[in-house]
């Protein structure tokens, strides 16, 4: 039996998942959340996209970690993200257009990297971006080893003494609560959020959408009524239908 999804390695960067054949295929770079690169969620999302004709690249950006530990999001260099995006574009199985898809901290990562690339005139901008459960501002550093549930002794939303991201060797412009200027990105945007999100309020996506509209942008926005940070089965099926349709429209034409 011939495999319907194949793994292909981008040397020095990691594995991709995509349809059989030589391609090239429209590609999507996937960003995990605070669960870290080892959790498998971004690979699972990659396989779903691969089953629908995309070359999907789960980009593991978190520091350290293993199968039992999420690692951390501390001073993650967004310049490395730009290099990984360039490597995906140069990969022989990649077609002309490349999108980004992030969930939670991965959504923050995708929006922030694209906004900085647009601001500074960096070439190779993504052709489309999808962000599920995104924040509208930069969030603080995260270390899975120190995480505590709300109400536990020592709980705090993040460490105010550390920064999550760096750009061109500096964290000075990437302080927590700084707005993510995704309005600088002129390409297609997909935003989605559960209205009962208990991790990051749906108001974050509403503020993003409002700010984009004020700048003349027209993002595709979906709210999933009664859904938490990660949708349940029926809502997730609905989400994937909309997500795949968005990327088909914007990466295959």
UniProtKB/TrEMBL annotation:
Signal peptide: none annotated. GO terms for biological process: acyl-CoA metabolic process; fatty acid metabolic process; proteolysis. One of its GO terms (molecular function) is serine-type peptidase activity. Gene3D superfamilies: alpha/beta hydrolase. InterPro entries: AB_hydrolase_fold, Peptidase_S9_cat. Residues 171-251 form the Peptidase S9 prolyl oligopeptidase catalytic domain. It holds the Pfam family Peptidase_S9. This is Thioesterase. It comes from Phyllobacterium phragmitis.
């Amino acid at each position: 039996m011939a495999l319907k999804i194949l793994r292909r390695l981008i040397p020095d960067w990691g594995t991709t998942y995509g349809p059989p054949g030589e391609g090239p295929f429209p590609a999507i770079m996937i960003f995990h959340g605070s669960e870290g690169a080892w959790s498998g969620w971004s690979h699972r999302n990659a396989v779903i996209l691969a089953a629908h004709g995309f070359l999907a690249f789960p980009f593991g950006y978190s520091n350290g970690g293993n199968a039992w530990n999420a690692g951390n999001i501390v001073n993650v260099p967004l310049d490395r993200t730009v290099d990984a995006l360039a490597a995906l574009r140069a990969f022989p199985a990649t077609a002309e257009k490349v999108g980004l898809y992030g969930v939670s901290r991965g959504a923050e990562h995708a929006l922030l990297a694209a906004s900085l690339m647009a601001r500074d005139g960096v070439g190779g901008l993504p052709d489309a971006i999808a962000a599920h459960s995104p924040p509208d501002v930069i969030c603080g550093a995260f270390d899975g080893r120190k995480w505590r549930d709300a109400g536990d002794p020592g709980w705090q939303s993040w460490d105010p003494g550390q920064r999550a991201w760096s750009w061109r060797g500096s964290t000075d412009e990437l302080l927590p609560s700084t707005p993510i200027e995704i309005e600088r990105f002129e390409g297609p945007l997909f935003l989605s959020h559960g209205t009962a999100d208990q991790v990051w309020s749906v108001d974050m996506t509403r503020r993003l959408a409002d700010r984009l509209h004020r700048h003349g942008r027209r993002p595709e926005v979906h709210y999933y009524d009664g859904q938490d940070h990660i949708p349940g089965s029926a809502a997730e099926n609905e989400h994937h239908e909309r997500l795949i349709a968005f990327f088909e429209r914007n990466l295959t034409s």
